[in-house]
Amino acid sequence: MKRRIVSATVNNQSGVLHRITGLFTKRQFNIESITVGVTEIEGVSKMTFVVNVEDDRQVEQLIKQLNKQIDVLKVSDITDQAIVARELALIKVISNAQTRSEISGIVELFRASIIDVSRESVTVQVTGDSEKMDAIIDLLRPYGIKELARTGITAFPRGSQKSVANMKQYSLLK
Amino acid sequence: MHTKVEAEPLKEEMSGAEIFIQALKNEKVELLFGYPGGAVLPIYDALYKMPIKHVLARHEQGAIHAAEGYARVSGKPGVVIATSGPGATNLVTGITDAMMDSLPLVIFTGQVARGVIGTDAFQEADVVGITMPITKHNFQVRQISDLPRIVKEAFYIATTGRPGPVLVDIPKDISAEVMSPNFELEVDLPGYQPTLSPNVLQIKRLLEAVKNAKRPVVLAGAGVLHAKASEQLLAFVEQNNLPVVNTLLGLGTFPAEHPLNLGMGGMHGTYAANMAMYECDLLISIGARFDDRLTGNLKHFAPKATVAHIDVDPAEIGKNVTTQIPIVADAKEALTKLNEECDAKPNISEWLAHLTTYKEQYPLWYNNCEKEISPQHLIELVHECTAGNAIVTTDVGQHQMWAAQYYRFNAPNRWVTSGGLGTMGFGFPAAIGAQLADREANVVALVGDGGFQMTLQEMSLLTELDLPVKIVIVNNNALGMVRQWQETFYEQRYSQSIMQHQPDFVKLAESYGIRGIQVTSEEQAKEVLQETLNKREPILIDCRVSRMENVYPMIAPGKGLHEMIGVKR
Lengths: 174, 569
What we know:
Chain B: Belongs to the TPP enzyme family. The complex is a heterodimer of chains A (174) and B (569). By secondary structure, chain A is an alpha+beta fold.
């Protein structure tokens, strides 16, 4: 299985998300996440799919099938391009007076933030790529995760392709 | 891709229903197939005063299959209207059928009023949601001012590129609302730009491959029909002396009796056609989509071949079969270009001689039943009595395969069958649509006793509309293909495939006001078919055929093209 990130610009019309998820179901494509939101152009939304495919042929078929949709304006597999890809996670971690400072130490290292504190828990907000999410979740798990929500990836190509292609921002975690 | 619409300035106020009818007139719609109901009452009221002809089917499924037959034969979009809820859900089979076989349909469904959508109102169904995966595109009209644009776009999408069904859902209150419409519109769909002209480099690559091929074969599918490219296909084939295999839906794109025709390929295709696809070194697919019933086990499909695939739908290329020469184009444009650029023909006389041996040594065959009618011979009789130029419609099953094998189609648009979906109940209503599209044609609905009973209520239309459709029931008192599979693959456990009680089809015909005849012997069949098939009146002929006859040859499921069974040697 290969993980591909596919970006699609679509008409912002009711039913478009249904149309596209329906297509994934019908054609048996394995979706990891879908994110949708408006763009700078009125009436146009951007969708980012993370899909698991068996081979290049399957991803080619996925893109062709998406392109067939009348409300889809443009589709591209951006996995191999230099891209900016971000995900957001909210993590509610069990914490008490003893563990709170440890947790906040981890949070600082990840450039994440604590956005809610209660007597038994703290809620951490973190943005970044999927590896960063996995890493912080792994570190927080021993404390006890009460609730976890992830948005899925939203992405587009970087402004300039070559020069920044290999820049990894979170070297700390690698 | 902009289409200028003739402006028809209509200043006065019109209701949504009137705007809708006017929009249909602007699209030059001459015939509607439908069934009224609560949510479309304003539309039917507007229709009352309008000169567009409406065909009142007896079930929505009948209406939509008739529209499919009409579209297949006329080349124009079939237009269907049904009410909300059950009216719309009754269309689902026909919509899927049209989607699978790429038939241009524009379907209008009523919807409950906007104010109650989503409340599980009386006769409400989420038709847009239901039909999303089975339409090329669908719409729900949310405001009356969008109505002319949506109708325009629906017809445009249904009929361009790869044709297909488009559904428009119209809430009842929109039909009743009033406004001054604007019909001066341009179709502007930036997300929909079908590629019709082929890439010249790919065309040259294909011609180079043709020139160097030792064992080339052309596979012609229904895309050739949709593009109206039979002439160009014939020219291309004759210019290069290429052997041709037809898909089930592609029958008639290339003359059956042409010496280069190898017949139909696939599960019940000819040995020559399937071996040609197995042994070829170049396979040129034109408007065919490599359905599993054609390819058999993909591992053994054209294993030694370079595959060239011409298709107007880019998603078909590489979907099932790896393609080396992809050509996204309309079949007519691609063939025209191929014919223009072609400069040398391949030297393949050995290959052609080899295939001719296959044709001669392994022809289609059947047993002559002594006492009963051989169904295969029955088809040959129908062919003989209609001089081979009838429009033949069928359902799915044994009778369909026999018709494909033994009714030799020499011209396009004479063969109307349910290919991709394999829909029982398709054949008879499709014959009604076909006859409405071509009043002069000799239309024969070749149906099985099983499928006919799914839509036989449409016999009402034969008298009502004065349609001289001939219904030939290939009656073996069973769901023949199911019975055949149970015999072959389930050790003769005939679970629910034999009809214990059949109606008296002759009396049934009479009750609908048409003549019915039962025939039980070959002699009688010949006599009756000769006497009736060229009459300008509807007649039902219930042919009692041999019950245990099977369709051969065959590729068993999971087997390759070269592993045919039931080949006579």
